[in-house]
């Protein structure tokens, strides 16, 4: 299991789970961390995986839910959903870097799992390709930000677009750079936000902040976006 988009400041967080056989290593010999592969290689592996992997699931957690829960809680929840949507019932789940509570099977964290374990690398590819496709689609609906190029990550081009236009509804308003750009334009979040400490600190330093700032605990928040917010992108379930 692995995710894509955790560090992006726009667009969804995508989590994938993938079941492989012990004999699949030769069939998917190219598999490694999706970030180390070219876009062409990722697309080729993606198509191979969705055809030949015994089981897989992809869950898309929209930006609004990331903002409501906080990115770590949203990541954990996405992983729970990705395991729950598998048709099979694995005896254990390998995760990239840290264990996940609340799964239907015990989680086993593997350091740099997307480079060391084939099924984690496969999940990395499934998540990355799905998310890249979504960001290219969003680029057509939210012009001027360059989503098709930087995929929602913070780049010089993206930062300049935020400065000029302010954030869109698919940005993560809980992130410090997005919250700061929103304040510059006098914009309020379009959905419930559990702001990060960094975002609160940056906004609090501004005398002309658009609204009072408050650190909100994500523990008791309920996401404003339900299953329909991500199901149209979900595959393999």
From TrEMBL:
- Residue numbers spanned by region Disordered: 217-237
Domain (RNase H type-2) ranges? 1-187
What PROSITE patterns does this protein's entry cite? PROKAR_LIPOPROTEIN, RNASE_H_2
Q: What is its EC number?
A: 3.1.26.4
List the Gene Ontology MF annotations in alphabetical order: manganese ion binding; RNA binding; RNA-DNA hybrid ribonuclease activity
Swiss-Prot/TrEMBL keywords: Cytoplasm, Endonuclease, Hydrolase, Manganese, Metal-binding, Nuclease
In terms of superkingdom, the source organism counts as: Bacteria
A single GO CC term for this protein reads: cytoplasm
Q: What class of enzyme is it?
A: hydrolase
Q: Name one GO biological process term.
A: mismatch repair
Name the cofactor(s) required for activity, per the record.
Mg(2+); Mn(2+)
Q: What chemistry does it catalyse, as a reaction equation?
A: Endonucleolytic cleavage to 5'-phosphomonoester
Q: Which residues form the signal peptide?
A: none
Q: Which of this chain's residues are annotated to bind a divalent metal cation?
A: 2-3, 96
Q: Does the keyword rRNA-binding apply?
A: no
State how the cofactor is bound.
Answer: Manganese or magnesium. Binds 1 divalent metal ion per monomer in the absence of substrate. May bind a second metal ion after substrate binding.
User: Cellular location of this protein?
Assistant: Cytoplasm
Q: Provide the primary localization.
A: cytoplasm
What this protein is reported to do is described as:
Endonuclease that specifically degrades the RNA of RNA-DNA hybrids.
Q: Which family does it belong to?
A: Belongs to the RNase HII family.
State the protein's name: Ribonuclease HII
This protein's species is Tamaricihabitans halophyticus
């Amino acid at each position: 299991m692995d995710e894509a988009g955790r560090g992006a400041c726009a667009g969804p967080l995508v989590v994938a789970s993938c079941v492989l056989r012990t004999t699949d290593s030769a069939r998917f010999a190219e598999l490694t961390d999706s970030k180390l592969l070219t876009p062409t290689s990722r697309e080729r592996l993606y198509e191979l995986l969705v055809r030949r992997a015994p089981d897989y699931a992809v869950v898309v957690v929209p930006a609004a839910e990331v903002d409501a829960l906080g990115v770590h809680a949203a990541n954990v929840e996405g992983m729970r959903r990705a395991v729950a949507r598998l048709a099979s019932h694995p005896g254990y789940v390998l995760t990239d870097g840290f264990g996940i509570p609340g799964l239907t099977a015990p989680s086993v964290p593997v350091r740099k799992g997307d480079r060391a374990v084939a099924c984690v690398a496969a999940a990395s590819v499934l998540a990355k390709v799905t998310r890249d496709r979504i960001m290219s689609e969003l680029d057509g609906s939210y012009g001027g930000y360059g989503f098709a190029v930087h995929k929602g990550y913070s780049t010089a081009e993206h930062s300049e677009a935020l400065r000029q236009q302010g954030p869109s509804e698919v940005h993560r308003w809980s992130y410090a750079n997005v919250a700061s750009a929103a304040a510059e334009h006098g914009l309020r979040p379009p959905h419930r936000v559990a702001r990060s400490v960094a975002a609160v600190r940056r906004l609090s330093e501004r005398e002309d902040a658009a609204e009072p700032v408050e650190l909100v605990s994500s523990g008791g928040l309920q996401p404003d976006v339900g299953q329909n917010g991500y199901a149209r992108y979900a595959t393999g379930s």
